[in-house]
Amino acid sequence: MIPAPSLPKEVRLEPGVNGLRRLVVHNGLATAHLYLQGATLTHFEPAGQRPVLFVSRQSVYEPGKPIRGGVPICWPWFGPHPTDASQPAHGYARTQEWSIVASEALATGETRVSLSLTTAIAELRYAVTVGSSLTYKLTTRNITAAPMTITEALHTYLAVGDVRQISVEGLGGAVGLDRLSGNRIPLGAEPIRITGEYDRTYVNTTAAATLIDPVFKRRIVVSKRGSQSTVVWNPWIEKSKTLHDLADDEYFGFVCIETANAADNAVTIGPGQTHEVEASVAVA
Has residue 3 been placed in a domain? Predict the structure, then answer.
């Protein structure tokens, strides 16, 4: 493991839940928690506001296990492995321990921390900037001698007052690949509303998505770069009962708006080349 660099006063490295190490960032603009396990963001709280991210109270904080909530990194595949059902869902980046490579206080009052992970096929770099908004960027560099194709997602769980009352705007006109029916369902001008299990990958869209939450009285804008897909997901009642790391009643407290390159939008990276995907979450 790479030794941790010196940290500015806004950042500390500490034992988190079950002793898993995490970076705590606290500046004048916000507070955030970033676990080295999976490079998983689990907390973002702009100054004077309620937390933005959702994490299950039944989440497993154990080496080699994904954390349920926050922003897990799905890489180098999103969903089930395309050819090998024995492989873990959403790849392996979210279950490995990452290394701290940099941390700095910016002149804007923001704080940036960077983690890295080297696999057999790629070098990954994850840069998280904590300020009045939260920005997180994943860079993949192909270290093999051949082109490689990946799918990926920054699987953002957003905390809501009641998922039955929220709406998601900004994706009008996109085509959603519905995982439940297997159909392609075009989205009209109407906003997305969650009235049951929802699992759609909206392809060929670079648009920002806006979550409107009348209970928490806020709007959360998820903007992105280097992403052609947006996934909207909520497991609802019955699916929640099958997830051991999600309490049965927690479905109503979150919706996932995921910055992705999935399905039709798989990314091919040439030898020695890099690809970046970035998301930014801001409370309006």
Answer: no
